[in-house]
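Weekly puzzle thread! Below is a chain. First person to post its structure in token form gets bragging rights.
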Amino acid sequence: MGKADFLTPKAIANRIKAKGLQKLRWYCQMCQKQCRDENGFKCHCMSESHQRQLLLASENPNQFLSYFSDEFKTDFLELLRRRFGTKRVHNNIVYNEYISHREHVHMNATQWETLTDFTKWLGREGFCKVDETPKGWYVQYIDRDPETIRRQEELEKKKKQDLDDEERSAKFIEEQVRRGRKGKEPTEEPVFTELQRKSEDEKVAFNLEIAAAGPSKPSTTLGPSALKTTASVKRKESSLSGEFKDKKKKSALDEIMEMEEQKKKSVRSDNWIQENIVVKVVTKKLGEKYYKKKAIIRELQGKYTAVVKMVDSGDKLKLDQSHVETVIPAPGKRVLILNGQYRGTEAILEGINEHKFSATLTLDSGRMKGKTVEGIAYEDFSKLA
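Winning reply:
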């Protein structure tokens, strides 16, 4: 049967079908040929052109693998740079947008088997900042473009210049104040001394100034010691009245809040590891085999050391508290509070606030069972084993 003409309904239907994305299993990366069904892919594999491409690839397979890997990496990073810039974004969002292009390089033709492996490789090579969360892997593009670096240097230079101007104006004001103080004459303060006489026969004389002529008034003048005593008494009374006013200003609610803050500060401890919780190994000293892997604390040896059992391999390791971090499970899972007012209490994770790096927990043990607590930091609770 001959091929349908260009304007026949069948030819138009075939072009419409071939316009969109097709199934990956019927795509040949070597020939860059997309087939619409299993029969078409089978016929393509038996074709002479495909066999020639396979012979060429068998002569130097590493060259073709490197070529496809470089193409995939370049296109992926270019899309990440143009579409998202230096924002932190989920790797699956970028990948779905990348494969929406019909002529993209498929991942099964590259050196990476999964998107997770490719994301880790980007982080190791320094192309992106990557981090793992309960929702998956996130990537953030590192812009090393010379033009971008030049703009950042100009902004930093401008900020530094603004700071220099502020410091210069502050020094000028300080110099003006110093000159103003220097022009004023210092006032002499009276010096109070005790009454002393060299011998017992010596008389003590007081020099009293006689007031100008006029109607006599009762004298209210006090000596230096009396003035000093009066001033000290007034200062004491004013300080006592100030303290009384401060105490009066504080309401009962403020006092309760201060007591709660002091209580929270007093119950915090610098050691948080406890038995039967899930933790994540964050030290690279043990190698890639254990890095970022989950483990369960089985035994405590002192305040800061624990024996953990790896979840994947079952190996037992002795680790310090600084070598592990807490694990945040999905909402609805049980956790153990490790620090703060409710230390040692089991709870249920209700929700996570990613902006404040905290969570909302419902206590599930103790006398406060059923109470909902907000603002518990990530490092203050961990998943129960």
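Puzzle host: Confirmed. Bonus trivia for everyone else. Confidence is low (pLDDT under 50) at residues 211-228.
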